[in-house]
Design brief:
By secondary structure, this protein is mainly β. The chain has one domain. 9% of the residues lie in helices and 23% in strands. The chain is globular, with a radius of gyration of 13 Å.
Length: 69
């Protein structure tokens, strides 16, 4: 929503490419081949809004992402 301006909108959790942050671009992501994905060939970057409860941040141990056409 606000590239290069972390903390301006929501707090995101990043997954996939381990170099993913508010300043990521094609060049920086393509240069890093390390991923948290099961499929080690998937160096894409994923993010979703951080989930918070009164007791604190909910830290997911996995996510499943799919696209439907």
């Amino acid at each position: 929503m606000y590239p290069g301006q972390p903390g301006r909108a929501m707090v995101p959790d990043f997954f996939g490419n381990t170099d993913t942050d508010a300043y990521s671009d094609y060049t920086s992501l393509n240069a890093n081949k390390v991923t948290t994905c099961d499929d080690k060939a998937d160096i894409s970057a994923y993010w979703l809004p951080q989930l918070r409860r009164a007791s604190g941040i909910v830290v997911p141990d996995s996510i499943k992402t799919y696209y439907k056409k």
